[in-house]
Amino acid sequence: MNVFPVCDAHLHLSALPLSCLEYMPFPCKICTCALSIEEFSEQKKRAETVRKKGVTVLCALGIHPLYLDSLSVSALRNVLCTEEKSAVEAIGEIGLDFFTPELRAKEKEQLSLFALQLELAEQYSLPAVIHLRKALGALFSHKDILQKLKKCPSVVFHGFEGSRNDAEALLKRGVNAYFGIGKTILKGDKSAMDCVKRLEKSRLLFETDAPYQTLRFESVSAPRDVAAVVERSSEIADFDFAQDACAVFDRAFFPKRCASSIIVQ
Fold first, then answer.
1. Strand stretches in the chain, DSSP E
2. E strands of 99-176, at which residues?
3. Are the C-beta atoms of residues 47 and 13 closer than 8 Å to each other?
4. Which class for 143: exposed (0-12), middle (13-18), buried (19 or more C-beta within 10 A)?
5. Which pTM was predicted?
6. What torsion do the CA atoms of 8, 222, 131, 201 make, to the nearest 10 degrees?
7. Structural contact between residues 46 and 106, judged by C-beta atoms closer than 8 angstroms
8. Secondary structure class of 181 (helix, strand, coil)
9. Which of 74, 140, 178, 191 has the least CB density, counted as fewest CB within 10 Å?
């Protein structure tokens, strides 16, 4: 099988070049996010292609804070209520983005949609995949959002840009949180480096955000790049993250299944 034993906790199958799907090696487990019904349909088709490689594919759907008009809450709820329900295995990516003044001006709308989608994650017992950019302060200041996060079975903070202290604060508040480390660590991002060195290892996931999160001189990011992220993180932490990658992925994205297996044992 053209598969290697690490996991990519965040990518976008529907946006990947076909060459990535057909010719490149894949991590053994991936989470892929769609931002619209059209993307979700394409994502499902591509997921079947990748599954034939022996890859476990978890498909997510949600309203991204940068694309508030690409999907409605009612459309998302309809997918969850129909025969498509089993095809949605996480709500995401959802969250807050205040990177520009224009985005900050939509804070109220972003918060409203974020809250409604967290309620869906709780209702359907699905993991929530979170996008936060320049918005950690807002997250901590809205206690209603924190309460909704606590009610989700698990919360995966994609491309986590906060500090180790921020991550630990979320855990102390009772959020079953996991934190995605991406290709920024290959550029020496200090917060990411501190997280892999000092944060609880069982809370760390690794990702590419393929095809979007590129390094200098790269035209596209590929799922295979997660191997470099894991390798560099392991060097920084003096810890072999690859050895537990699949187990951490499963706890983050299949929390109920993992809890049941622990009870049975």
1. 3-11, 26-34, 56-61, 90-97, 128-133, 155-158, 177-181, 204-206
2. 128-133, 155-158
3. yes
4. exposed
5. 0.95
6. 30
7. no
8. strand
9. 74
